[in-house]
Design brief:
mainly alpha
Length: about 190
């Protein structure tokens, strides 16, 4: 009702801006749920249910794919990415393709997609980290040092840096108190604190 009223009185683009903000929040919530097992309020599914599916906002696609990967629905994740592949944030899409393929055991294809994401955006940290995780999984322990080097270069307050540092600490079983603190700082703004 509020959205309809605002559109009628001439607040141009209100609905689309609100949808994009909701989609971005859904993507952050999906990352908190899938990477760290946290349960933000409202949950990602609730946020996604409020958004249109055609066309689906890009961040909603990213959130949906993250949930699919977490639930081990790799082929479904790849179908979502194929259906919405023309959207922006191409490096993110390629990284998620690589992640779905890596988790499905399609290592060679995963590596190609992580590399493609890095070619599209050489500063794309997530693709570099996922490639590093893949190499560590394959037994390349020098890659673990590479991951740590990348994390040390990120801004301390950047949301992705907070998530990645916490994820790295949890996976390496190091400095878990700092990981908890980073995750709590990240959740604070979402609770309105």
């Amino acid at each position: 009702v509020v959205n309809g009223y605002l559109e009628l009185v001439g607040v141009e683009g209100h609905v689309s801006r609100r949808r994009e903000a909701t989609a971005r929040l859904a993507d952050v919530h999906a990352q908190l749920e899938t990477r760290f097992g946290l349960t933000p309020t409202p949950d990602t599914e609730t946020l996604l249910a409020t958004l249109p599916t055609d066309p689906m906002p890009v961040h909603a696609v990213l959130a949906r794919v993250r949930l699919d990967i977490a639930e081990e629905r790799y082929e479904q994740a790849l179908r979502h990415l194929a259906r919405h592949g023309g959207l922006q944030r191409v490096a993110d899409m390629e990284t998620l393709r690589g992640l779905a393929m890596a988790r499905a055991g399609r290592v060679a294809e995963a590596r190609e997609h992580f590399s493609k994401a890095r070619q599209l955006d050489p500063r794309h940290v997530r693709s570099r980290l996922e490639l590093g995780h893949l190499l560590v999984t394959l037994g390349d322990h020098e890659a673990l040092q590479h991951l740590n080097d990348i994390l040390q270069r990120l801004s301390r307050e950047h949301p992705e840096a907070l998530m990645l540092r916490a994820e790295y600490a949890i996976n390496a079983q190091e400095n878990l108190a700092q990981a908890r603190s980073d995750l709590e700082r990240l959740q604070g703004p979402m609770r309105g604190q």
